[in-house]
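Let's practice the habit of predicting before peeking. Look at the sequence and jot down your guess about where helices and strands might fall. Then scroll down.
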Amino acid sequence: MSNEDARTVAGFGEEWARFDQSDVPAEELARLFDAYFSEFPWGQLPKDAVGFDLGCGSGRWARLAAPRVGTLHCIDASEAALGVARRSLASLPNVHFHQASVGDLPFEPRSMDFGYSLGVLHHVPDTAAAIAQCVRLLRPGAPFLVYLYYRFDNRPAWFRRLWELSDLGRRAIARLPLDRRHLVTDVIAASVYLPLARSALRLEQLGVDVSTLPLSAYRDKSFYTMRTDALDRFGTQLEQRFTRDEIETMMKNAGLTNIRFRDGVPFWCAVGTRA
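Done guessing? Here is the structure:
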């Protein structure tokens, strides 16, 4: 089974065509990459390691991961997204592209030295099965890095209630026609993300701990990233969220051991090794 939602795949193809990440400052992209990959054991990979980027999207992470490995297979269910990634990564000869869903991956079991999937598997119908499919490709001892939306299990009750209200908006916005969806999410980025993020930055400069404030994670991000993430957050019909314990359980059930979580933003980002 493909384990994909056709509407969600089409939506992300539209997103990456609109926001191909070419306008993200290189320094900002490097900071984001370092945050997501902070627990990834680069030094333990074999020479000329072969691995995969599941749900590569625009290729923004592959752009920085590929120079560190021998071969990187970029996989996405969206033909439009792969077109963006091909253009973005054209200068990297060790990158190969595959249009496939997580339920129909074109590789032999135990053929990969590493894998990662960032911000993707919470957008498929069966996240646990998707993690298991990814782990199935790994050789014993190979690492797998995953980032899944958190269920605010480390946040106070008022924070969770605020998210619940915003999610009602997402359910309505995600059903809008494409042009209206873009317009509404751009307005959200300008009227919500930007002022809250920049206010958090000013408070931080005054010595205030802003880690619990909504959207404070965007305080040092470009408006381009805010627009991208507003569309990602409010323009996607299928979204699931998980607690840290639920993610750890799915990873263990898939055959991963030595699981480590990043303690800071983004929540939750975890890496484990194939048993």
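How did you do? The chain has nine helices and seven strands.
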